């Protein structure tokens, strides 16, 4: 409710603030030296319950009702959500039907902007209100002078760790938030005027207009990310090598012999796939040489498991490392016991007479990927091939991913809303299959769906998010919540660090890498832009430049060299296909005419496939 309070001076100070010093009817000026008129003393001043605008809520002809512009807790109401309550409160009793309409209106208004957009606007306006409170200025309605002062204050900002200033786009976004706050409450926009435009232009020219962009992740690096994400950690590789050595069919090793295997110098690697590796174990009075044969099944190949452990440990000892160096025989016995208990069947090791099927089941208890690994690998596959923004991954539901009716191998992805599509018109992206199963989206989605079914105890619902949060124990919340944009960014950065890729990379590197790779493969601006949903005509030029910079083309090359390389490529392809033909069809080796015809047909095919 409005109420009158003790008359105060309403003059304007040198800083553009309203003077709030007390004044009485008999005074001709306040203590600050400002002239007090009878009109100033007779003007009613509105007091609101908000701590931010309790001093004054009048400016010229603008008079705000109590609490306007703020929520009951005192935080800024940027999108004027309080109008919903005021609208229905003014119409009488709240019946269940009207209450349902009120909730529906609130839901519709909340969906007018993406959650990330609303959060960013709210943070920016809170920063503006804090500045006004510190400087004793009025935040709503704000004067153009106040906004200009805030813009200059933002220009002085410098990070205490990196010593970097705000990017010009960041300041423009913060000013736009204040503009939105005023427009939502039908107030004049203070973010205007030639002086503020010159401030923004001058700041951009001073600090640079182009922010540091994340480097693109091309196909080869993308495959490394997925391999690293799916890879087992070092301790899992250690345990796998221990289990395979303890169940080696030719020479099973017990915990004490394995304790003596402490240096990689004790192992001689085979020179070919047919030769065994030789392990030398020292005993009290002798040295024992043990041959470790290769196995046709990669999962049961002990030599391969040792080599992977050797590479992942940096080719340095100890072999079976623990927190304090080489683990002891008791630790090795405990590892074997725990895995046998997981498998059941009363199995005990070492035992070289185990059938391959039982050995496979035993080692699978160690090499099984975690739920987080499967989720992250599927996310990396989906984000790169879809060219998605990080904010589009969390809202993605199972209903948004289905097969194309014309070709079941093609995945149809529907992005319901994005950064450039606040209206929710939607965008369709088609993701084609990959010959490599590690990279194929349908394969990864099927594996992740199987894990989700096991986690939930039921198949996932079409409206549930595909990529949801998991804690360290692989537990999910009661109501599945999709990953935030920051969580997606952290997953990509962790995968980049684990893969040992140096440079400035973020989640946007996957989207940039897809576009760059597409341009390098010869796709046009319209084709790439339609897939990734570009709205700005200037954006493709960035990735076209990257495709030239990262590509193999050289503008200074002699055309004769290019033609020679094309001929060499055709000859190599012809020889390869002729060799394949001779291997598969040996009866025609004496048919010279047929072979000549075959070579001619292959040459024609290769030339037709190559660009002219």
Give the topology.
Layout: H1 38-42, E1 58-59, E2 62-63, H2 82-89, H3 96-110, H4 115-135, H5 144-155, H6 168-184, H7 194-207, H8 219-230, H9 234-246, H10 255-260, E3 267-268, E4 277-282, E5 287-292, H11 302-312, E6 321-322, E7 325-326, H12 329-343, H13 356-367, H14 371-386, E8 401-404, E9 407-415, E10 427-431, H15 441-456, H16 485-499, H17 508-520, H18 525-532, H19 539-550, H20 559-584, H21 592-609
Detailed description of the structure:
47% of the residues lie in helices and 7% in strands. The chain has 612 residues and is mainly α. The chain folds into four domains: 69-207, DNA polymerase, domain 1 (Orthogonal Bundle), CATH 1.10.150; 233-367, no CATH class; 371-550, Intergrase catalytic core (hpI Integrase, Chain A), CATH 1.10.443; 559-609. It has a three-stranded antiparallel beta sheet, with no helix packed on it. A three-stranded antiparallel beta sheet has the order 8-9-10. A hairpin with an 8-residue loop joins strand 3 and strand 4 (277-282). Helix 9 (234-246) packs antiparallel against helix 13 and helix 12 packs across helix 13. The protein is globular and about 95 Å long.
- Classified in CATH, the superfamily of the largest domain is Intergrase catalytic core
pLDDT under 50 segments (min length 5)? 1-6, 38-60, 551-557
Q: In percent, how much strand structure appears in the residues?
A: 5-15%
Into how many domains do the coordinates divide? Answer: 4
Give me the CATH architecture of the largest domain, please. Answer: Orthogonal Bundle
CATH topology of the largest domain, by name, is: hpI Integrase, Chain A
Helix proportion: 40-55%
Cα Rg:
35 Å
Question: What is the class of the largest domain in the CATH system?
Answer: Mainly Alpha
User: What is the global morphology?
Assistant: globular
- Helix-strand category: mainly alpha
**DSSP summary: helix tally:** 21
The first-to-last residue Cα distance is: 80 Å
- What about the largest sheet? 3 strands, antiparallel
Give, in spatial order, the strands making up the sheet with the most strands. 3-4-5
Mean residue pLDDT: 77
Give a count of the beta strands, DSSP E runs of length 2 or more.
10
């Amino acid at each position: 409710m409005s109420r009158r309070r003790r008359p105060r001076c309403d003059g304007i100070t040198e800083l553009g603030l309203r003077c709030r010093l007390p004044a009485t009817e008999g005074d001709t000026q306040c203590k600050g030296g400002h002239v007090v008129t009878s009109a100033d003393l007779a003007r009613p001043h509105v007091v609101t319950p908000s701590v931010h605008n309790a001093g004054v809520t009048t400016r010229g002809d603008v008079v705000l009702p109590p609490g306007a512009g703020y929520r009951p807790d005192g935080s800024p109401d940027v999108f004027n959500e309080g109008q919903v309550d005021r609208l229905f409160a003014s119409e009488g009793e709240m019946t269940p039907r009207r209450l349902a309409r009120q909730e529906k209106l609130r839901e519709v208004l909340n969906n007018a902007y993406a959650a990330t957009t609303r959060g960013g606007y709210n943070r920016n306006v809170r920063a503006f209100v804090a500045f006004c409170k510190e400087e004793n200025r009025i935040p709503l309605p704000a004067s153009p002078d106040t906004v200009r002062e805030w813009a200059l204050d933002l220009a002085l900002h410098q990070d205490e760790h990196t010593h970097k200033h705000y990017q010009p786009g960041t300041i423009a976004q913060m000013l736009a938030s204040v503009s939105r706050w005023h427009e939502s409450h039908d107030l004049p926009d203070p973010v205007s005027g030639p002086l503020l435009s010159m401030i923004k232009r001058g700041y951009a020219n001073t600090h640079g207009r182009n922010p540091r962009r994340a480097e693109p992740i091309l196909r080869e690096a993308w495959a490394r990310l997925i391999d690293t994400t799916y890879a087992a950690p070092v301790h899992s590789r250690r345990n796998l090598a221990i289990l395979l050595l303890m169940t080696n069919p030719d020479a099973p090793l017990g915990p004490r012999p394995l304790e003596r295997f402490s240096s990689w110098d004790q192992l001689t690697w085979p020179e070919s796939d047919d030769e065994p590796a030789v392990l030398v174990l020292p005993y009290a009075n002798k040295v024992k040489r043990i041959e470790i044969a290769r196995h046709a099944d990669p999962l049961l190949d002990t030599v391969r498991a040792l080599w992977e452990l050797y590479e992942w440990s940096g080719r340095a000892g100890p072999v079976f490392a623990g927190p304090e160096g080489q683990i002891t025989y008791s630790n090795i016995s405990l590892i074997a016991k725990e895995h046998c208990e997981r498998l059941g069947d009363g199995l005990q090791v070492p035992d070289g007479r185990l059938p391959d099927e039982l050995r496979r089941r035993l080692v699978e208890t160690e090499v099984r990927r975690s739920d987080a690994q499967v989720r992250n690998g599927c996310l990396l596959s989906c984000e790169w091939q879809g060219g998605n923004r990080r904010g589009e991954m969390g809202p993605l539901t199972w209903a948004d991913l289905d097969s194309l009716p014309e070709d079941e191998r093609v995945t149809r992805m529907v992005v319901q809303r994005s950064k450039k599509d606040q209206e929710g018109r939607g965008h369709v992206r088609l993701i084609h299959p990959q010959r490599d199963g590690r990279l194929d989206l349908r394969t990864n989605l099927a594996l992740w769906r199987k894990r989700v079914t096991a986690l939930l105890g039921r198949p996932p619902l079409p409206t549930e998010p595909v990529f949801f949060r998991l804690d360290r124990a692989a537990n999910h919340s009661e109501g599945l919540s999709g990953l935030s944009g920051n969580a997606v960014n952290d997953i990509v950065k962790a995968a980049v660090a684990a893969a040992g890729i140096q440079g400035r990379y973020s989640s946007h590197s996957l989207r940039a890498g897809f576009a760059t790779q597409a341009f390098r493969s010869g796709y046009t601006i319209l084709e790439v832009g339609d897939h990734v949903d570009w709205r700005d005509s200037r954006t493709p030029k960035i990735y076209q430049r990257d495709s030239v910079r990262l590509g193999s083309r050289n503008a200074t090359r002699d055309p004769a060299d290019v033609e020679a390389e094309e001929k060499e490529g055709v000859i190599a392809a012809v020889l390869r296909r002729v060799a394949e033909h001779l291997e598969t069809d040996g009866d025609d080796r004496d048919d010279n005419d047929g072979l000549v015809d075959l070579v001619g047909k292959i040459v024609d095919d290769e030339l037709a496939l190559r660009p002219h």
